[in-house]
């Protein structure tokens, strides 16, 4: 018994069967040829062939009730040539993009040479930004006393109170409807629906 073949080795050997004979095969035929000629275990032939079909390296055509598989050497060469052409085109595009970016970097650095004046301005900018951030932090500490913020909170509190009272009224309406319709006492209603005894408008 020879060494176990990897999936890539099995695929390569299966392609050799197609390329050497240049004939279409039924899966049953490949399951007989694979072990004898290429040492591919018959139980794995179907998976190997299907992987080649999925990667468009092998054709599969249903003729009548049978599936025929084939691949020609010329097709593989054409696919490799097309793939190489696509990769070369992609490389050319990347090189052009790299040139554009290098040019953009060079242009962006114009006027930003590291001079004494520029270094001084950069330091001054850093100091101003630090001062600005400190003042923002200090201002944030006094937000609680901001009259605009306080007025907004008061307005929000009124809206929240009105909404709470509206829902409280809805609960009382439901309580009255159940009392009239099903003779349910308010105490029963409160027990069934988890309403506290001191439930009332805000």
From TrEMBL:
It holds the Pfam family LZ3wCH. It is found in: Nucleus. One of its GO terms (cellular component) is nucleus. The keyword Nucleus applies. Residues 14-73 form the Mnd1 HTH domain. Residues 77-107 form a coiled coil. Keywords: Coiled coil, Nucleus. Residues 150-201 form the Leucine zipper with capping helix domain. GO terms for biological process: reciprocal meiotic recombination. GO terms for molecular function: double-stranded DNA binding. InterPro entries: LZ3wCH (IPR040661), Mnd1 (IPR005647), Mnd1_HTH (IPR040453). Required for proper homologous chromosome pairing and efficient cross-over and intragenic recombination during meiosis. Belongs to the MND1 family. This is Meiotic nuclear division protein 1. It comes from Coemansia interrupta.
